[in-house]
Amino acid sequence: MIALDVQNVSVAYGGGRLALRQATLQVGGGSVCGLVGMNGSGKSTLFKTVMGFLPPLRGSVQVFEQPVIRAQKAGLIAYVPQSEDVDWNFPVSVREVVMMGRQGQMGWLRRPGAADHQLVEESLERVGMSAFAGRQIGELSGGQRKRAFLARALAQEGRLLLLDEPFGGVDVGTSEAIIALMGELRREGRSMLVSTHDLGTLETFCDEVALIADRTVLLYGPTDEVLTAEHLAHTFGGRSPLHAPSTAKLEARP
Ligand SMILES: Nc1ncnc2c1ncn2[C@@H]1O[C@H](COP(=O)(O)OP(=O)(O)OP(=O)(O)O)[C@@H](O)[C@H]1O
User: Fold this and answer.
1) What is the pTM of this model?
2) CATH no. for residue 216?
3) How many Å apart are CA 243 and CA 145, to the nearest integer?
4) Structural domain that includes position 11
5) Where is the signal peptide, in residue numbers (predicted)?
6) CB of 47 within 8 A of CB of 21?
7) Closest residue CA from atom 4 of ligand 1
8) Ligand 1: distance of its center to the CA of 1 in Å?
9) Which amino acid residue places its CA nearest to atom 30 of ligand 1?
10) Sheet containing 66-67: which strands, arranged edge to edge?
């Protein structure tokens, strides 16, 4: 089954110029897909579109064969935002952030039950943040902040995880811990779309890679087919698209 199916999606912020132009991308069920491109190429916009924050002007987005809004309501999509997109002064503790991951499942009026509390503690434990659970989120290091939001995504139990630059501003140890966690999640059958500038580690954790430049997806498919010097030169040289995404089109996995 295809976890994420983005077809010819165009998006603009506030009716301005297009921030995504006819982007097409698929992520296979149970796969980890790296999303690679320069600053301003459209990675965060793609995440926001898949989250349903930005409605496409054209094209369609489906998550596990459901429209985004329905997939969102069903709690299928978990999002780990870029650190820049979080208000770190917000007066909330790490534990409270992680509990926010349960909100969709609880509904707005229900209070968390024992199972919710247990899942929050397990998620904190899994990312090594139990000792920091009571801390205000602004009082964390860069790596701890990433871990806190990863724990929120775990608590949510989403089947598709969107990780926007999980390695930004973290040390080698934290990067390795995040990669190990992604491996565990993949073995659990979760699918991931992971934006990163860290080209060196892509091959270690990605089944698939999507290259994005000038606000559209140039190419996506199996890591070894996509991640060539020539393709990367096109992506980072800002030149025109190589060829249609279908050349390295993903085979659907069971
Ligand atoms: N809130 C916004 N309002 C208007 N335009 C925006 C907004 N956010 C991003 N854009 C524009 O949309 C395009 C894609 O930006 P986006 O933030 O998706 O890139 P990115 O690949 O995530 O970049 P980075 O690697 O720097 O995070 C850019 O041209 C950018 O200037």
Assistant:
1) 0.89
2) 3.40.50.300
3) 38
4) 1-72+202-254
5) none
6) no
7) 13
8) 30
9) 40
10) 18-28, 2-12, 58-63, 66-67
